[in-house]
Amino acid sequence: MSPKQSFLALLLSLAALCPMNGEAAPWWPAKTYDLSDGTPIETDYVPLPKAEKKWNICVLFPHLKDSLWVAANYGIVEEAKRLGVKVTLFQAGGYENLPKQLSQFDDCVASKSDAIITGAISEAGLAKKFQEGLSKQIPQIALINPVADAPVTAKVSVDYPTLGSLAAGYLLDSHAGKAVKVAVFPGPQGAGWPESFLKGFDEKLKGTPAKISDIKWGDTGVAVQLRLVEDSLQTDPDIGVIWGAPPAIEAAVGAVADAGKQGKIDLLPSYENQAMLGFLRSGEIKGFPTIAPVLEARIAIDIAVRILEGKSYMKSPNIVPIMVTRDNISKANLDNIFAPESWSPSYSVN
Q1: Where in the sequence is the domain holding 103, given as residue range(s)?
Q2: What digits encode the pLDDT tens for the residues 71-83?
């Protein structure tokens, strides 16, 4: 073989080892808890290789205002492409827009969707719609936001009290038993997940020197959270920790600096978004618990296809949460947590 032929053979062999068309490395097996029977069983989730036909899946998000839902959008779109199914995605614009999400649900049904995946603004608000969908033989999959009692075919989430407890445990460790006042900004009251986060956080702090001194509820827009944080800082000058949804932490970075308390108040998010990753790397925060929205979204698409094709599926897979800190970030699988920085939300896969 000539040198030129050897070089070409090397290039061909390398090409065979590389993903084509920018395809990402497999995201599986993924650690999950299977709660289908009520008892968590740790298992490795492995998706289908391909769908048998081009199913039409409709997806409803509460909004795309923060990078967590943008990451979920990325997971939905990429897994739909990998499996070869069609997706139409609607977002309601915020947790105050339940009527809009209900109308979007009707649009999914009217468009003859084969399955509907919903990040519910409110479990109580969507319960009747879930039942309507099921009565029309349309599988209903709940995604990210918890659905405890409403009728769904499957639900993909994480245990939010566990996430709250993870954050509270980290707070207690970092303050080493010292008394501290904590202002909390869980998110929009009535959405389900903020209350669940707070439940785990509060229970972990009970009987410790760390005390919740203020609770403020509100939409997860940064502007809304900024008003709440500023009000709390003005009301109580002795706050030592701010814990809450990432938009609250984004708002708090500037608000704390403006109040002249930078370095005196610890900021602790209840879950992750792209800004929290930047804050962790720059030192504004020390860690965050993970929902892994990319992974949850991928699993939701796979479960929808499994249901439609009559294959076995987990009725209630929960992501195994971790606390990401500067000490372990190099070992964390960030591809399951964040969309690429270049990603822009997409509303359809054809």
Answers
A1: 24-158+291-320
A2: 999 999 999 999 9
